[in-house]
Amino acid sequence: MHSCGTRWHLAGFLAGAIGLFAAPQAHAEADMILINGKIVTVDVQDAVRQAIAIGDGKILAVGSNDEVRALSGLQSRIIDLGGRTVIPGLIDSHIHGVRAARSFTTEVSWIDAGSLVEALDRIRVAARQAKPGAWIIVAGGWTEEQFVEKRRPTQAELAAAAPGHPVYVQLFYRWAMLTPLALETLRISEDSDLPAGAKLERDANDNPTGAITGGIREFGALFARLPAPTEVEQIAGTRKFFRELNRLALTGIVDPGGVGLTPESYQALFHLWRERQLSLRVSYSLSALAPGHDELKTFQDLTQLLPAGFGDDMLRFTGIGEIVTWGLYNNDHPSQAQKEQFYEVARWAAECGMLLRVHWLHDSSVSELLDIFERINREFRIAPLHWIVDHLDDASVASLTRMKNLGVGWAFQDAMYFSGDRYAAVAGVEAARRAPPLATGLRIGVIMGAGTDAHRVMSYNPFVALRWMLDGRTVGGTPLRAAAETPSRLQALRLYTVGSSWFAKDEARRGSLESGKLADLAVLGQDYLTMPVEEIARLQSLLTIVGGKIVYAAGPFTDLEEK
Questions:
Q1: pTM here?
Q2: CATH fit for domain 5-93+545-560, picks 3.30.2380.10, 2.30.40.10, 3.30.70.2730, 3.90.249.10
């Protein structure tokens, strides 16, 4: 048995200390009051109010202008919203934010590029601004379906856009195009030069096209060969990426770990946390390191002084996953030995009171995972631990019911926005019409949280995800989701706020705009509740507040941001 006694005592002490110093003061004067707004509280009544008062980083009151103004004092800042809509800060329950952030200033983004011409122009601009011979990298977050040309770039187009620079462009975890200079720099000329399982794509005449095909493990290993950003670049990238998320009304993210992360990957995040420069709340878990490590020993070593819940309101360690063991990662047919290995690690996590989340794609095999969960639950009740199944777009009623009975959460993402057309071609249109079955999950009562899985496989824009939740259209415009699986606007917003707060183990303090909760909110440029659904993807925040502090301001509120 692997004892977690010391870690439990330390976690309890920290939780008690945080609670002691965070206790609200009665009859406190407000630091900030927002009036003349449409405050969408997302409370149990789905109430819409007029004003909100904030003090000491928390919400003091929500109500009418007169009710809230009663809390004003000589030092209170009064902000007139001019009738604009306010929502709780959005929380992405599954975004690879640590990985995306550290390279945000050194990569080229094709997110929201409407054409291949525009995408290639972004390459040209980056090449002109880069140092001679520097790599030009597009790490993901795009698909050819978003381009009017409906095709991927050729090697010649990339080489012409960035002459003298090695160029690497990745599409999901299944394809990448490299220029001749990139292949030469990485010393790739044959399949044997690639990670096992990856292959050079060839044309009809058996000539290499410059493209490489493979899966998530292969591209994880291939991407690791590219030059890493410097420490300064990682810090700058993290700061800039988090501000970009603030622009899109995000006040919190839940990072599931994932492929390619090492302990060193978190140093830029920790630096900004120590300097009190984080502009959103980060909850994170640790994934298994590269295949070949002893996963149980690795987790035990990494968490000796990192108990579940360690951290503060801005940065918190929650547990392990989404890769718990490599034997049960993207494996629909695990052996008994692989399942026993996973059980040993998961049981240890339960004994230590840790959150555990697992990347699982197919309902046809998820019983292999749920059987292990139920086995552990007979010894340690896992509902209070907030265990999570990630993805599972084709979840069945039976699987969701088992998860609900266990108290296991379902973190779903808008993967079908990019991949819906391909999924429909493979699984059939009827299957695609219920992928993922959002309304069914709500009806069953399984715990659900919305997210994006950005940035390698999806856009990080939460409003793209919210629009997709409401109209089920792919990036190419194909309508897929059936009306029976479509949530209402308030239900979708709840899944991105109250729902996702559970995945951060913070549901008692975040997700809705109620007295006593943390003051995390966003003032939107348009009214999410009434604007045309097709325009929701273009929504932005004009004023984003985290813990009572303005972290992003634009338009009429530009002068309010603390510089």
A1: 0.93
A2: 2.30.40.10
